[in-house]
Amino acid sequence: MNDLPRELYRTEQSRELDRLAIEVYGIPAYTLMERAGRVAYRVLRRCWPQARRICIVCGGGNNAGDGYVVARFALRDGLTVRVLTLVDPERLQGAAGTAAKAYLELARTEPFTAEALGEAEVIVDALLGTGLDRPVEGRFAQAIAAINARHLPVLAVDIPSGIHGDTGQILGLAIGASVTPTFIALKQGLFTGAAPDCTGEVIFGDLEVPPAVLIGIEPAARRITAADVNPHLAPRQRTAHKGRFGHVLVVGGDRGMGGAVRLAAEAACRLGAGLVSAATRAEHIAPILAARPEIMCRAVAGPEDLEPLLARATVVVLGPGLGSSTWSQALFERCVAFDGPLVIDADGLNRLAQAPPRRGAWVLTPHPGEAGRLLGCSAAEVQADRFAAVAALQSRWGGVVVLKGAGSLIRSPALTWLCDRGNPGMASGGMGDVLSGVVGGLLAQGLNCEAAAVSGVWLHARAADQAAGDGARGLLATDLFEPLRRLANPK
Ligand SMILES: NC(=O)C1=CN([C@@H]2O[C@H](COP(=O)(O)OP(=O)(O)OC[C@H]3O[C@@H](n4cnc5c(N)ncnc54)[C@H](O)[C@@H]3O)[C@@H](O)[C@H]2O)[C@@H](O)CC1
Ligand SMILES: [K+]
């Protein structure tokens, strides 16, 4: 994954890049297709070196053209190749028509049937690429369902058929691939929405297109890499003291939800905040202190009790376990007026939905359900276009917005960032509380909202990957603390 470029593009931009490569840089369309097919074939051989029987399923566009090139390379290597078509190869146009013709000079194709998948060991999905412009139905849907039903290794050419390249949404039905070699530019939809369940490993081929082609087309989003994060985590000076690293105040933990405060507060400690306080219900004080004596715990009965704490805080994390009582409402109202950076999560976001204040220096960290409540739509509608949702949230609420979920998105006034790390073990209670504390801990050390959100999301996901090891099921939020500490001190 580390070899992937960091720039992400929309499909219309990737088409423009193709056009520039062809028209301005003089690379013939068929040459690009040959290179795409060669990359895909190499990936196939590398992933399944023992496979001898390959089935290539082709649609009617350039994605199919890539498939015909793969078929030709496979034939040349003496593999048993079956090309199954959804569109008569004689009808293919342009470079795809050339690729189909070159294959037909060597061998025949057959119309797609589920039975014709026969004894295949690997299936190549060359049905639909970035030209997908409507929901998959009819024969295409039947073909995708039949391929998925085989549970065989599948290589998806450029993008799994049925996935929309801009949103990662499944339009109707999509191929579940094991690996997706993708070309020229990374499509932003490969890494979020439903796509992470469908792509398998994404492998990039630049098709030898000169980097100059990319100049002038502003990427739609950026993948976060270590290079974006580690410069913010420079080694500390020997003379450092805790007064230099901020004071995080975590506010939340209504009755029955004290754990959320403890998780956020400990996460802020683990990221290196100088001091961390928690303001919560009286009954949570003893258990939090027993578990983590480094956290300064204060019982708050109402907003007046917050005053001395807010006076000392440099950052407030508002929301973990905050609940929806009158106590919660009063604390919320006082804290959103805090004169410093804020992280708002969980119940804090639900309160924001009811009373819309707008404020610059904050990081909002909704999951799709909370994002839906803020935008007045369903979580499913948020998931259908996460890029649009995070942009709408940021434009309405200001600050920096983190839309959580596979392929977390971070939207600042200037940029959209995407995190392609993390694992399904993070789908467990308390993970969001840890993230809000991580971001708070980074803000306390002087990072701005964008840098804290980008770095926090990435460190949190990387910590979860390290903690999960070989198995995501059963991962606990507290398992992230040790790897977080390691990651907060990059070598
Ligand atoms: N020169 C280029 O432009 C290159 C393109 N490449 C390949 O070309 C692909 C894009 O090619 P195209 O723009 O021809 O698009 P596609 O190959 O994705 O297919 C478009 C065709 O599918 C039809 N279609 C769209 N949605 C459908 C649906 N739901 N059900 C049935 N049919 C549907 C369209 O009407 C159109 O005929 C890329 O994904 C990539 O694989 C690569 O060969 C690299 C170079
Ligand atoms: K495809």
From TrEMBL:
Q: At which positions is AMP bound?
A: 404-408, 432
Question: What InterPro entries is this protein classified in?
Answer: Carbohydrate_kinase_pred_CS (IPR017953), CARKD (IPR000631), Nnr (IPR030677), Ribokinase-like (IPR029056), YjeF_N_dom (IPR004443), YjeF_N_dom_sf (IPR036652)
CDD domains on file: YXKO-related (cd01171)
Signal peptide location in the record? none
User: Do you know which Gene3D superfamilies this protein is assigned to?
Assistant: 3.40.1190.20, YjeF N-terminal domain
Question: What keywords were assigned to this record?
Answer: ATP-binding, Isomerase, Lyase, Metal-binding, Multifunctional enzyme, NAD, NADP, Nucleotide-binding, Potassium
Q: How is the cofactor bound?
A: Binds 1 potassium ion per subunit.
Q: Where is the YjeF C-terminal domain?
A: 225-491
What's the Enzyme Commission number for this chain?
4.2.1.136, 5.1.99.6
Q: Report which reactions are catalysed by this protein.
A: (6R)-NADPHX = (6S)-NADPHX; (6R)-NADHX = (6S)-NADHX; (6S)-NADPHX + ADP = AMP + phosphate + NADPH + H(+); (6S)-NADHX + ADP = AMP + phosphate + NADH + H(+)
Q: Name one GO biological process term.
A: metabolite repair
As one GO molecular function, the record gives: ADP-dependent NAD(P)H-hydrate dehydratase activity
Q: Name one Pfam family in it.
A: YjeF_N
Q: Which family does it belong to?
A: In the C-terminal section; belongs to the NnrD/CARKD family.
Q: What does this protein do?
A: Catalyzes the dehydration of the S-form of NAD(P)HX at the expense of ADP, which is converted to AMP. Together with NAD(P)HX epimerase, which catalyzes the epimerization of the S- and R-forms, the enzyme allows the repair of both epimers of NAD(P)HX, a damaged form of NAD(P)H that is a result of enzymatic or heat-dependent hydration.
Q: Can you name this protein?
A: Bifunctional NAD(P)H-hydrate repair enzyme
